Amino acid sequence: MTFTSLTYFIFLFVVLFLFAILPLQKRWVLLLVSSYIFYAYLNAPHLLIALAIVTVVSFCCGLQIYKVNAPTLKKYWLWSGIITNLTVLLLLKYLPFLADNLNLVLRHTLIAHADYSIQPLIAIGVSYFVFQGISYLIDIYLEVLEPETHLGYFALSMSFFPKLLQGPIERGENLLPQLHEMAPISVDNLRAGTNRFLWGMFKKVAIADHLATFVDPVYQNVHSYSGFSLVIATYLFALQIYFDFSGYTDMALGAARCFNIRLTQNFNSPYVATSVADFWRRWHISFSSWILDYIFKPLQFSFRDWRRWGTPLALMVTFAASGIWHGASWCFVSWGVLHGFYLSFATLYKKQKQKLCKAFGLEKSAILKAWQIFVTFHLVCFSWIFFRSQSISDALYVAWQPVVGIQRLFSPMTSRNFEWVKQIFLGKAPQEFIGIMLLVVVAAGIRFLDQRTAKHQDQVGELTGLAELPVWAKGCVYGAICYVIAFNGAGSQSFIYLQF
Amino acid sequence: MSTLSIIRFSFRSNIAIIFFLLTIELCSRLEDSIRYGAPFLGEYNSKRLRTMSETDGFSRNVPNARFEKWQNNALGFRGSDISIQKTPGTKRIICLGASETYGSVFEGSGKDWPSQLNSILSNSSFQVVNASVVGMSLNSYASYMKKYVLKISPDIVICFVNPMFSAVIYERKCNTTPKTIKSNGSGNNYPLISKQKLIANIRCFTKLKQILKTAIQTSFPQLLKQYQIRDNENQLKEAESLRLMGRSPINTVSDDSVAAFKTELTNLVVFLKSHGITTMLSTYPMLMSRDNLSKYQEIFLDNRRFSVEFSEIGMIDVVDRYNSAISEVAKEQRVLFVDSNKLVPKTTEYFGDNVHYTERASHIIAEEIATQLINSSSVRTKPVSLKPMLSLEGR
């Protein structure tokens, strides 16, 4: 049941209707049951078992950590919870990857016919609720959070259906209090939720899915393309993944908002980041803050004796782990390591950079900011090559091809047959390319206006400006948005982040 | 809530809904006119591609007409413009048939079998022209060829003949019905539903219907199937009462009907031969078979509306016997022959409905025809190699 399917709309409508008519104290039961039904719809019983295990283990360990006084016992319960959660994640997500690599090693070393292949299982949503469970335990251990004493509410916080499949990775301190204080459905919440949901759907269906029709053929067969096409496909993928994931997040936040629950904002204009560190403050915020708090900070503390190299090393390890979290493949690991390298390099040469800016008097200039945005965007785009490619050799081809063929990259521009124009459009009709670029510009314009009209950062994406329009104009705007979503979608494509 | 506020609320809601619908309709028309050059205000449907010629007695394609992905050239053939005079050394292949050859909604743009044949043969000196007309039956082929196709000097004609059209026409001749039934302009008479006509003028409704159908098909396939079966059964009953007037649908096609078809097809081949044209006949692939009758019930019921004279078993019998007749004519007349019916597997992976193909089936047909053409000594011009098609895997 994906967010863009008719089944989900009907499901959401029915749950909302029941939520509205049920007494306040029974609503958590409805949301919990519907969340499990939603998850059961994936037709993978092992996922329900995994969710139940992570929920019960995190709940019990959380209570024990809080109850016991001895630090060693606290530590014992903490590690018991973390290891159980990670074991679930490992079994469902990483075992086939580990087996494949073990086979590879064995084949090249000792045993010629070793085959320990394991069929991969569906693991949709597992890494999200496992991370949520781990953060809950650590927060209780660090005494940042008091444990939840009601298993029902805790189970709901782990399984709440709008965020179950692709996050955001919620912290107990944000979600649990809201679940305890569920307010009745209000017109304002419904309007804000619907607006955000529609906005997310617009980004996903009208833009990301269309962009996928340009990007997928190239990245599925990179060796058939060269120069310009690979560069353009990479830029388009950067847009696709943003519109896909932020579209999903808006749909999740919108659905939750209808129930008067505010989930964590996951994006804040990531492609206008002025550094890679800034990018990570704006991209997949719930995840980046998670790895910062629960991996980077403890590592940085552990490596404090390494002086100048402590932080870079902690960054490298953190982002390698981030790559592994995204998927059991060397491409994701390379993507994570690349980001770790960017951040480590920036940390090591921070002072030199500041000195250089000071020397040229560029400290607060708009030119410097524009340059930083340009460079950051391109560094991120470069890393997306590894993220999107099907293998490391494909990624290296995409990364290297435009460099070795630099002459070929630009020579088509000068040729008279306008071959380079065809390369830009990636074999599609020019009007299709122009159409999708226009939609990207429209989306950027709407986002800009929305940011200006929103009174609070939380409201960005809720299209609050629509409320001030006259009723006929509202009809027109909703009509146009619904038209583009319903009639102009490129067909249902799966969400990119669903695989993680 | 006071009465006044209720009235105000409902008034405002109605205004919003009216503007909402108006915007959707406006966007539909705007998109059609930008993407396909459709008229902003006029009627826009597939009928604009064809016209019923009163003088000829058969429908033909309107020159330069365009509807969505379908475009006719200046000569009234599907595809881009061609010159009447062919370039020296070129061999013109004419694809003659009905909607299965013209191209349907089930293949992507440029993926109908004549287009795929053109792609496969693009390295050779062949030029493929799709001269088919939706709804064209065998009795019009020769007249149509004479009037519109011979002037472009065809070298090879590949004929796809819809057996159901011929069988139904024969039956209707034998059992003339007193009630006149309006023609929908496609050359194939079946009852028109006035409600559909009205909805067709509101463009967003047509699109919305399609989207809803796709959405329901993805989410609730069984539910849609049940609805379609019931809906098609009702429509079929309506059509049967108009056409059959108490008679039962036929289970076995008469020998006379098959013989008449065979004679007509032989005449066509002789006519083509007399003009020095190499002919290729193909059997007619149909999804319906004795093995899958219950599997695709909704599809078969839908298709039966156009040939109510025959039961499902009767339709299978028509296609089997007429296809045998096609193969016999090909043998007797020593013309090229492709058994497309045997080549295409009878599943919905290959058929969009009972008689229209998906890209996969079109690919199979195009590849077989290309192979036959290249291997045939009668049509070979210069050594050619089959151009590998884009991989169809994953479609």
Summarize the structure.
The complex is a heterodimer of chains A (500) and B (395). With 500 residues, chain A is mainly α.
What labels describe this entry?
heterodimer; B: 395 residues; alpha/beta; 5-stranded parallel sheet; two-stranded antiparallel sheet; 9 strands; 48% helix
Structural features, described:
The complex is a heterodimer of chains A (500) and B (395). Chain A has helices at residues 6-21, 27-40, 45-67, 71-108, 126-141, 151-159, 161-164, 172-180, 187-220, 227-258, 276-282, 285-302, 310-326, 330-348, 350-359, 366-388, 392-404, 406-414, 419-424, 430-453, 471-487. By secondary structure, chain A is an all-alpha fold. Chain A is globular. Chain A starts with 5 loop residues before the first helix and ends in a 13-residue tail after the last helix. Chain B is built from 13 helices and nine strands. With 395 residues, chain B is of the alpha/beta class. Residues 178-192 and 386-395 of chain B have low confidence and may be disordered. Chain A binds chain B through residues 5-7, 10, 431, 471-476, 478-480, 482-484, 486-488, 492, and chain B through 12, 15-24, 27-28, 31, 35, 204, 207-208, 211, 215-216, 218-220.
